[in-house]
Amino acid sequence: MINRIKRIIICASALGLSTITAQYNVGLCIVATGKYIQFVPRLIESGRKYFCPNQKVTYFIFTDGTLPEADDVVCLPHKRLGWPYDTMMRCEVYNRHSDELSAMDYIFATDADMLFVDTVGDEILGERVATQHPGFINKRGTYETRPASTACIAGHEGQHYFAGGFHGGSATEFLKLVRTMLENIKIDLEHNIIALWHDESHLNRYFIDNQPTIILSPSYCYPESWHLPYRKRLLALDKNHADIGK
After folding, report:
1. CA 159/CA 37 separation, integer angstroms
2. Of the candidates 213, 201, 5, 177, which has an alpha carbon nearest to the alpha carbon of residue 91?
3. Could you tell me if 30 and 58 are in contact, meaning their C-beta atoms sit under 8 angstroms apart?
4. Number of neighbours of residue 58 by Cβ within 10 angstroms
5. Is 200 annotated in the active site?
6. Are strands 128-131 and 222-223 parallel, antiparallel or unpaired?
7. For the purposes of burial, counting CB atoms within 10 Å of the CB of 240, is it exposed (0-12), middle (13-18) or buried (19 or more)?
8. Which of 69, 76, 148, 238 has the fewest C-beta atoms lying within 10 Å of its C-beta?
9. pLDDT in tens, 15-49
10. What is the end-to-end Cα distance of the chain in Å, rounded?
11. Which residues contact 242 (CB under 8 A, 6 or more apart)?
């Protein structure tokens, strides 16, 4: 359940009272270390226009860089860990700041190199929210299949393959997800195992064990230069991976 009642609707027209609708607090988590910080100002600007426009949004930026101060931006220090840990250990930084994040009603996480280009609104507000990977639409994808990994998905499991670029849910469910993923990643590392697609592999394992309540189309993780039969809402920007990762 949402940790506080936010849709307060007083509907008593017979008494002549007006309707009052309170907003949800929605957090958007972005890990942006090294050169990835360059994408964040534009991402936040686009989010202010298109991301949950009916709600109160706070941008949580985990970075070793700097951003201009703003009332809706919370910058939290986070050191660059190097590949693949910068992405794989995002759940660790979210879990470490669970006190700050738990003040939200809903929490979402997105890659830093993304851009909102159309409304991503109240349709995403659910308990557990996953996004279909644009490369594996309505089919099984490249799951981790080694039995020694906690992210392993057997041949009889899995219907969708979900993208790590955008996911979320209620604060309670999101923080449960990151705790579980972190525990499993640590177990793998103790056995010198790194899952095939890092945190995304663990995310897919989690969503098999805890089915999403909302499955979003690839509109919400749309590769910038691709041509798919979906409306563009949240773009995954083209970039030079080798240069950005330096």
Report:
1. 35
2. 177
3. no
4. 18
5. yes
6. unpaired
7. exposed
8. 69
9. 344 444 569 999 999 999 999 999 999 999 999 99
10. 42
11. none
Q: Using CA atoms, how far apart are residues 32 and 88, in angstroms rounded to an integer?
A: 13
28, 47 contact by CB (below 8 A) = yes
The packing angle between helices 171-190 and 198-209, to 10°, is: 120
Please state, in angstroms and rounded to a whole number, the distance separating the CA atoms of residues 96 and 76: 11
Q: What are the residues whose beta carbons fall under 8 Å from the beta carbon of 138, sequence distance 6 or more? A: 132, 160
Residue 134 DSSP class: T
DSSP run (H or E) holding 49: helix 40-50
SS3 182: helix
**Would you say how long the chain is, in residues?**
246
Closest by Cα among 113, 127, 130 to 200: 130
Answer whether 168's CB lies under 8 Å from 57's CB: no
pLDDT tens, residue by residue, 165-178: 999 999 999 999 99
Which residue in 144, 183, 200, 224 is the catalytic one?
Answer: 200
Q: What is the largest CA-CA distance in the chain?
A: 67
| The pTM of the whole model exceeds 0.85 | yes
- Answer whether 209's CB lies under 8 Å from 197's CB: no
Task: Find tokens 């008494």 and name the residue.
Answer: 15
User: What value does the CA radius of gyration of the chain take, rounded to a whole number of Å?
Assistant: 18
Q: Which amino acid is at 203?
A: L
CA distances from 148 to 89, 177, 189, 200, 239 (A): 19, 21, 11, 17, 34
